[in-house]
User: Fold this.
Amino acid sequence: QVQLVESGGGLVQPGGSLRLSCAASGFTLDYYSIAWFRQAPGKEREGVSCISFSDGTSYYADSVKGRFTISRDNAKNTVYLQMNSLKPEDTAVYYCAAGMPLSLSWYDYDYWGQGTQVTVSS
Assistant:
């Protein structure tokens, strides 16, 4: 059974950090691109970052450049999103997704996790 499971969300103060994990089971990520998306209430789903699992090429949305870092662990079949200098506007449900093109467009992705809540508030 193909499955993506996110973890690591929570409540953090502005300026703080969190690391999200996306663990895959039932398939290998070797031939996929993995992306993180987020969706805040009343807003459209936004592509945050993506990475090619095979060669590590990555892209970031302008809103998170310099603050977020995406990485992967081939042995663990897992992708991470390190989020630093968090702002209240980063508050959203964060989803990881697997697909073939390296893209920040949600419609390019076939497999999705259930999401993890990130809340940035004092």
